[in-house]
Design a protein that fits this description.
Radius of gyration of chain B: 12 Å
Oligomer: heterodimer
Structural class of chain B: alpha+beta
Helix content of chain B: 25-40%
CATH class of the domain at 80-106 and 210-386 in chain A: Alpha Beta
Number of helices of chain A: 16
Number of domains of chain B: 1
Bound molecules: pyridoxal-5'-phosphate, zinc ion
Strand order of the largest sheet of chain B: 2-3-1-4
Strand content of chain A: 5-15%
Strand order of the largest sheet of chain A: 4-5-13-10-11-12
Largest sheet of chain B: 4 strands, antiparallel
Number of strands of chain B: 4
Shape of chain B: globular
């Protein structure tokens, strides 16, 4: 049973049938999936959802598929960690980390959007899926395509680090590296998408792909006991996840799964690539493209497709946007690891650091509930933190050498430390 | 013949230049403006170019040479 009624232009309102199509023929506005919310309201309840398997399809009435999900059966439903030690450090009462660093199978939030896009690709009869990506998106498309048995093409700039190529290459897609400056490579990718009518997850399947990001928001609300967080900090790259989490919260209210309550949403960007946050600070909704220069590569998008909708969603929620320096991002990664035992990539370091900044600015009050979005895994980007990790101390294999080292470090005797806590 | 759709991003000074008029005179392309937003900082124009593939490529390269950012309407697709 599907409640999808069609596609609609977000700008001029023109309607379209469900198809692999992402921009309005008339005004070039982005297309969005439409649903029959009254039907959904009658069909879902907290109990029906809670009884389902713990993956992103438990919210399937609010997702744009018509048939049984075929991929992503282990994606989503990641932990919402109550972060008490980080809360103490930041001086706040109620703090959570929504942890997509452990999303299945490629350790980032992209497994959500890709699960939906590839299920849709199969429904629409495609045998080939594709994307242009420098990291997380390519990893996810490659892995899901392998499991679905689909042909897969990945387009990358020709100067990408070896490690990032392997993270997708292991799944055996056809990888094409394109030389040229960013704008030329980017333009060629859209021309390829135009000409070869494959399922380009973030281009012609974008209306379906982006809907997958709502599941991050659905889960946060469910895991809070069917409540919205009072404050939520979300990273912004292309501008998918933030507006879709905002939409998820609105939908949950509309279909009667949570009570309406204020929920402020904050966009987090790296200072070296902050076109959206800059526009929010200018109180403008026109995004001035920037040339990215930051270690937070997974969120370094100079001219985001949906940046405008990030600004609108932030504004509507009563939130704000902040950016932080690369040093603050690295400190954020260390802080999260040290207090909560979670190793995130620079995108997560950005949200941690931005949350800290917003609390210090007084924009986020200390006595209200806060969710920090952690959307990617630190094991993929060890080079970002490697310089700050002390080298291990080398000793010969003799107990006396360890004793000497231990005493020299001036540590208290072990018996004085809480061993069980 | 092909049709390609672009966003042109102009800086404050460039907004005064009749670039779209000039490109249509210099190259064998049909230009069709689909939307525009202008602030005191920047201008963004949604433009459709119709012509032979390689002529569109040349026209785009020429617009970019004028210092205007030319991007597909999907903006950045490399995520
Ligand atoms: C780890 C991670 N976090 C967050 C994002 C945010 O992306 P967007 O704003 O495009 O949804 C991305 C995407 O590129 C990502 O890879
Ligand atoms: Zn339209």
């Amino acid at each position: 049973m599907s409640f999808v009624t069609g596609l609609k232009c977000r700008e001029c309102g023109e309607s379209y049938e469900i198809a692999a199509l992402n921009v309005c023929e008339y005004c070039f506005g982005p297309l969005e999936v439409q649903y029959d919310y009254a039907g959904i309201k009658a069909a879902v309840s907290r109990e029906t959802i809670e009884a389902r398997p713990q993956n992103l399809w438990r919210y399937r009435e609010l997702l744009p598929i018509e048939t049984e999900p075929r991929i992503g059966l282990y994606s989503g439903y990641t932990p919402l960690v109550k972060a008490e030690r980080l809360a103490a450090e930041l001086g706040v009462d109620e703090l959570y980390v929504k942890d997509d660093s452990v999303n299945h199978p490629t350790f980032s939030y992209k497994d959500r959007v890709v699960s939906v896009a590839i299920t849709k690709a199969i429904e629409l009869g495609f045998d080939t899926v594709s994307c242009a990506s420098t990291g997380n998106l390519a990893n996810s498309v490659s892995a899901h395509a392998a499991r679905a048995g689909l042909r897969c093409f990945i387009f990358i700039p020709d100067n990408l680090e070896q490690g990032k190529v392997i993270g997708s290459g292991i799944y055996k897609p056809t990888t094409v590296a394109i030389s040229g400056n960013y704008d030329d490579v980017n333009r060629l990718c859209t021309e390829i998408a135009d000409k070869y009518k494959w399922a380009f997850v973030n281009i012609n399947l974008r209306p379906f792909y982006t809907e997958g990001a709502k599941t991050y928001g659905f889960e946060v609300a469910e895991q809070l006991g069917w409540k919205l967080p009072q404050h939520m900090v979300i990273p912004t790259a292309g501008g998918t996840i933030l507006p879709k989490v905002a939409k998820a919260f609105e939908e949950l209210i509309d279909v009667g799964l949570v009570d309406a309550a204020p929920s402020r949403i904050y966009s987090a960007q790296a200072g070296g690539c902050a076109p959206v946050v800059n526009a929010i600070h200018r109180k403008s909704d026109l995004i001035e493209p920037v040339k990215p220069n930051t270690i937070a590569k997974s969120i370094a998008i100079g001219n985001p497709a949906d940046g405008y909708y990030v600004i609108k969603a932030v504004e509507k929620s009563g939130g704000w946007g902040e950016s932080v320096t690369d040093d603050e991002i690295i400190a954020g990664i260390h802080l999260l690891a040290r207090t909560e035992g979670i190793f995130t990539e620079p995108a997560g370091g950005t949200t941690v650091a931005v949350t800290k900044k917003l609390i210090e600015q007084g924009r986020i009050p200390r006595d209200e509930s806060i969710v920090i979005s952690v959307t990617g895994n630190g094991y993929k980007t060890i080079e970002a933190v490697a310089p700050g990790i002390p080298k291990p101390q080398v000793i010969p294999a003799k107990l006396s050498d360890f004793d000497a080292l231990y005493e020299a470090a001036g540590e208290p005797p072990l018996s004085d430390k809480a061993v069980n806590g | 013949m092909a049709i390609h759709r672009f966003y042109l991003t102009y800086s404050q000074e460039q907004i005064k230049e009749p670039v779209i008029y000039q490109v249509a005179r210099k190259y064998d392309v049909i230009t069709n403006i689909r939307g525009a937003s202008i602030s005191d900082h920047i201008g963004i124009v949604a433009l459709e170019l119709e012509g032979e593939e390689d002529v569109i490529d040349e026209a785009v390269a020429w617009i970019a040479e004028q210092g205007i950012k030319v991007e597909p309407i999907q903006k950045n697709v490399i995520e």
